[in-house]
Amino acid sequence: MLRKDPESPYEPLTDEELVHNINLIFLAGHDTTASTLSCALYNLARNRDIQDKLRNDIYQKMGLSDSHKKLVVPTSEQVKNMEYLHLVIKETMRMFPPILHLGRQLSEDYPIPEDNIVIPKGTTIALSIYSILHDPKIYPNPEKFDPERFLNAKYDVDTYMPFGGGSRMCVGIKFTLMEQKVFFALLLQKFDLRIAKDNPDYEQLRVSGFGLSRPTDLKISFEARF
């Protein structure tokens, strides 16, 4: 479109720039989604009651019986109606945000009156997403995996931002959520997830990384249902 508009003030992207942007989208979408899926697997294996409730909700939304023995791919409409699955993913991303902090550059001077400080325009700052999502004043008992905390409570966009916020929010938000929901709608039909009490991750999932987080050597048992 830019190439066809001679009056456009914007320069079109070169082929090389397009390739770099496409590569960035694939890379950014792979590690973050893989990390969230791994953390969700842990949460479900560690909390069997929530796993069972989620499986029952998936079966209900897909019209499946407990005795079915064939893997069924959900439709997009069925996935959209899996509200409890959405809560499970949302709570997982609160507990284990794939991006730990956001970097931003100030577009204008920012005063902090109580400290008599002015951060000058152009300063690069880092916002800790993890600290916000684990603030007990916002999320009571933040270390507890509780998907239903989002059921009736309303949180400001400034207090829930695993995908970032504002005009630079992650462009892949809808894609990754659909990807994760289809993954679990299929996985929980086929497998029960378990984690042994002697597993080093049983009490607390070990997470490593700076900037991008990921579980460390996570071991979970997958027991076939059929």
Automatic annotation (TrEMBL):
Molecular-function GO term, any one: monooxygenase activity
Protein's name according to its UniProt entry: Cytochrome P450 CYP6N4v3
This protein's UniProt keywords: Heme, Iron, Metal-binding, Monooxygenase, Oxidoreductase
Domain of life: Eukaryota
Residues annotated to bind heme: 170
Cofactors required: heme
Family label: Belongs to the cytochrome P450 family.
